[in-house]
Amino acid sequence: MKILLTGSTGLIGSAVTAALVAQGHQVTAVVRSQQSSLKASDLGATGVIGDLFDAPWLASELRTHDGLVHTAAGGDERDAALNDSVVTAALDAFGGTDKPFVHTGGIWTYGSGDAIVETQEPHAPTITSWRPAGEQRVLTSDVKGSVVQPGIVYGRGAGIPAMLAGGVDGGTLTLIGSGEQHWTTVHVDDLADLYVRVLTGAPGGRAYIAASGDNPTVRELGEALAPTVEPESDDATLERLGAFGEALLLDQQATGERARSELGWTPTRPTLVELLAKGYPADA
């Protein structure tokens, strides 16, 4: 298929680009600069410079493609507007067709829980409180839309775990909160495989939690990195990290069973604890 992809230079998007190309798909990557276009080309995609906030332009581009995978994130207060624009363009261009649209959500939307599944009601922290409305626009539309909801994405020495790894000071790591909270985790390459499976095999109208089934505590992650770990109060974490800290204090566990049973997804990469114990290398 000829697939338009957003966020191709990010951790998730670059892995998805490579996975799509490896499966023989033709990928067009929406980028913001010539430099980013060159990065997309290195991954086997064709870059097109455009503005994701321009929904009419994006819809026009989409009409020449067979599907859309949206992984881009503004990383700031514009995230909600960016996602709204992309969803609007997809619904405009793909409405009433069987062209697949894979949207990116996140497991934080569900709040804390020890057995999180896609049928739960959202209980999102402040930082992702805007996500549920957009996801419902996708899932209840006349588009063949699906939502992938990743846990904490790791691998390639990047993502949120890199923040932990960079926090070791003199052999001591200050934990996020008490460290007793669990994080759902997924390796970026396993996640990319799931995106391809959702794009090519999902019926639409369904969300898929992307969780490997390995749900370590933050203390376990810290102990893999440093000989000494020190907990801090929730208040101290919130003062240090703000709304981001609120999300990282969530206590979440999930297995990703729907993706496994419906799409045959089988995560195979090393666990986050294993990679942290090796120094969190950039090539794994």
Overall description:
This protein has 284 residues and is an alpha/beta fold. The protein is built from eleven helices and eleven strands. The protein has helices at 11-22, 34-42, 55-62, 79-94, 131-139, 160-165, 188-201, 218-225, 234-248, 257-263, 272-277; strands spanning 2-6, 26-31, 46-49, 67-70, 100-104, 144-150, 152-154, 172-174, 185-187, 206-210, 228-230. A seven-stranded parallel β-sheet has the order 3-2-1-4-5-6-10, with helices on both faces. Strand 1 (2-6), helix 1 (11-22) and strand 2 form a beta-alpha-beta unit. Helix 1 crosses helix 7 (188-201). The protein is globular. The mean pLDDT is 96.
**How are the strands of the biggest sheet laid out side by side?**
3-2-1-4-5-6-10
Oligomer status: single chain
The topology string of helices and strands comes to EHEHEHEHEHEEHEEHEHEHHH
Helix and strand composition category: alpha/beta
* Mean pLDDT across every amino acid position: 96
The fraction of residues in strands falls at 15-25%
What separation lies between the terminal Cα atoms? Answer: 29 Å
Instruction: List how many beta strands DSSP finds.
Output: 11
